[in-house]
């Protein structure tokens, strides 16, 4: 009995493969390596001592998916595959709609053809409308997304909900991640963004390792305790474990279920910088710059539904996130190319 993990060679996917294997599942990965390296899966095998069945495959390729479903006894699917860079989605909207929507539609079609009825989908806190009060709960309003990437996540959620409504026996968990950071404590797998990182933590760790001159802190005049943006950062290992909880949940829950995966705690940019410097004893030079267009002052989750229903709760704290990010970055200064 295996779990198919699309996009399993990527950042969150590779950490989830580790937790699935540790929990006793067999893992089959389909990834076209458009934003990842096969080395991550070799490292997953090294960490767990267990094999991963890997297919270099585009999830939009129906015949390849048929081959995978025919070869393996797949009972559940976790769908990570997709593009995720906000700025790139603004510059290349059609590329984002094409990849993220077609991969989700093609995957659902293949699951129906092969009578596989449990899907866990990587969604994002970005589907929540600006203007909600904090914390965000699963019933907060969604839509009014400010970029094509956000719309692709919103639309994929809608598509999956329609599939669940139309097809008896098809159930889904839509997991809305807040801000995943950190790396496996072994330092063997972690986030390896191509080009200049958009997100805070990889920018901090690349600055600390000397790949970037300084961090730009996007605004210090927000209505927050120190004026910098506040987000709900969670350790990627906790996030990965949330996926194991979700596939277990789908074993005895029909229908569609939406869960926030976050800590419920907000951290400012400067708090993150200071924690990183303190736990790792490295300087992170920074400069305050203008606000980034589209940024909100404060975003954090109400994770009580996941705590209660998935029996999932984050266990690792901000120091763990900073320590493990640095362990990965300093032992792999150029990511998987190192
Ligand atoms: P990632 O880029 O590291 O992983 C995505 C993987 O999907 C990559 O390995 C890439 O090669 C693969 N892929 C892309 N298109 C594909 C296709 N058509 N066929 C096969 N493989 C394909 O990203 P990640 O950070 O691990 O994110 C995983 C998922 O979680 C994405 O769907 C992303 O939108 C979502 N998400 C990420 C974050 C975050 O902050 N990292 C937050 C919320 C949601
Ligand atoms: C961003 C995306 C969001 C996406 C999420 C995860 C935007 C507007 N939002 O969210 O849609 O779901 O990433 O991929 O792009 N910061 C700096 N300097 C930096 C980078 C970030 O000060 O170099 C600040 C930001 O202003 C923010 C915080 O750090 O206050 C976190 O930023 P980031 O990691 O990009 O995450 P989000 O803004 O939550």
How is this structure best described in words?
This protein has helices spanning 11-22, 39-48, 62-71, 86-91, 93-113, 148-166, 200-208, 236-251, 269-280, 304-310, 318-331, and strands spanning 2-6, 26-31, 53-56, 74-79, 118-124, 171-177, 179-181, 215-218, 230-231, 233-235, 256-261, 267-268, 286-289. It is an alpha/beta fold and 338 residues long. The strands form four sheets. A seven-stranded parallel β-sheet has the order 3-2-1-4-5-6-11, with helices on both faces. The chain has a two-stranded parallel sheet with strand order 7-10. Strand 2 (26-31), helix 2 and strand 3 form a beta-alpha-beta unit. Helix 1 (11-22) crosses helix 8 and helix 9 crosses helix 11. The chain is globular, with a radius of gyration of 19 Å. The two termini are 35 Å apart. Nicotinamide-adenine-dinucleotide binds next to helix 1, strand 2, helix 5 and strand 5.
């Amino acid at each position: 009995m295996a779990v198919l993990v699309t996009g399993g060679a990527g950042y969150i996917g590779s950490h989830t493969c580790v937790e699935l294997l540790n929990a006793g599942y067999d893992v089959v990965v389909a990834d076209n390596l458009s934003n990842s390296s096969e080395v991550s899966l070799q490292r997953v095998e090294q960490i767990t001592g267990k094999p991963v069945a890997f297919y270099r495959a585009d999830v939009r390729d129906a015949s390849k998916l048929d081959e995978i479903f025919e070869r393996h006894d797949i009972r559940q699917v976790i769908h990570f595959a997709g593009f995720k860079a906000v700025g790139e989605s603004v510059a290349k909207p059609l590329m984002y709609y094409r990849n993220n929507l077609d991969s989700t539609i093609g995957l659902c079609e293949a699951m129906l053809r092969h009578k596989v009825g449990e899907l866990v989908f990587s969604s994002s806190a970005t589907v929540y409308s600006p203007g909600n009060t904090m914390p965000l709960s699963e019933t907060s309003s969604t839509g009014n997304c400010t970029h094509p990437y956000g719309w692709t996540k919103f639309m994929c959620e809608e598509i999956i909900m329609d599939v669940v409504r139309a097809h008896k026996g098809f159930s889904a968990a839509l997991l809305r991640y807040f801000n995943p950071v950190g790396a496996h404590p072994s330092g063997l797998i972690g986030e390896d963004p191509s080009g200049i990182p958009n997100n805070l933590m990889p920018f901090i760790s690349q600055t600390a390792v000397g790949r970037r001159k300084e961090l730009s802190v996007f605004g210090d005049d927000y209505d927050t305790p120190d004026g910098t943006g506040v987000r709900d950062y969670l350790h990627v290992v906790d996030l990965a474990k949330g996926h194991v909880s979700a596939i277990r949940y789908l074993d005895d829950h029909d229908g569609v279920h939406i869960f926030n995966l976050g800590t419920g705690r907000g951290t400012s940019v400067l708090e993150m910088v200071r924690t990183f410097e303190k736990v790792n004893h490295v300087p992170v030079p920074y400069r305050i710059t203008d606000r980034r267009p589209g940024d909100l002052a404060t975003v954090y989750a109400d994770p009580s539904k996941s705590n209660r229903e998935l029996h999932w709760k984050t266990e690792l704290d901000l120091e763990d996130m900073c320590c493990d990010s640095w362990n990965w970055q300093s032992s792999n200064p150029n990511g998987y190319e190192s």
